[in-house]
Amino acid sequence: MTREEMLYFQRRLLMLKTRLGGDLSALEEEALRQTGGEASGMLSDVPVHPADLGTDNYEEEVTLGLLENEFDILFEVQEALNRVEQGTYGRCEECGQEISRERLDALPYARLCIQCAWQYQDREQG
Questions:
Q1: Is 43 helix (H, G, I), strand (E, B) or coil?
Q2: Contact residues for 114 (Cβ-Cβ < 8 A; gap 6+)
Q3: How far is residue 15's CA from residue 10's CA, in Å, rounded to a whole number?
Q4: Three-state DSSP class for residue 67
Q5: pTM (2 decimals)?
Q6: How far from 47 is each of 30, 52, 60, 99, CA to CA, in Å?
Q7: Can you give 79-119 as a three-state secondary structure string?
Q8: Using CA atoms, how far apart are residues 10 and 25, in angstroms rounded to an integer?
Q9: What is the pLDDT of residues 96-107, one digit of tens each?
Q10: Contact 74, 20 (CB under 8 A)
């Protein structure tokens, strides 16, 4: 990988990290948001109807799932930035071969080349 390519991917990773940081903040606010309460004219934070309670629980689970996913991606982005600093970015952690430009364009924090990623996925499912 050339120095220019490395700088290109480093900038992409930094922009992704910034965006994910903002997304995490928004999701954290959503997850911590209170429903009902005095602001909505109610005296309690408990929804009035059981269906409302179910909807609130579902929305909270979805938000927490998104939050976990965003956190995981942010971790992977930071690890990729660490690999840039160490000079190992763009190399498969399994076989040591160079990860294709197409794969890095699609997933700039990829740790594995496509062949090793398929093998890893097969092991996890099998």
A1: coil
A2: 99, 100, 103
A3: 9
A4: helix
A5: 0.71
A6: 17, 6, 14, 51
A7: HHHHHHHHCCCCECCCCCCECCHHHHHHCCCCCCCHHHHHH
A8: 23
A9: 999 999 999 999
A10: yes
Q: Which of 77, 73, 67 is nearest to 27 (CA)?
A: 67
Give me the amino acid identity at 89. Y
30: tokens are 């959503």
* CA pair distance 84, 87, nearest whole angstrom: 5
- Computed from CA positions of residues 109, 113, 118, 122, in that sequence, does the dihedral angle turn out positive or negative? negative
How confident is the model over 72-92, as pLDDT tens digits? 999 999 999 999 999 999 999
DSSP, res 40: G
d(CA 5, CA 20): 22
**Cβ within 8 Å of residue 96, ≥6 positions away:** none
- In whole angstroms, give the CA distance from residue 33 to residue 47: 14
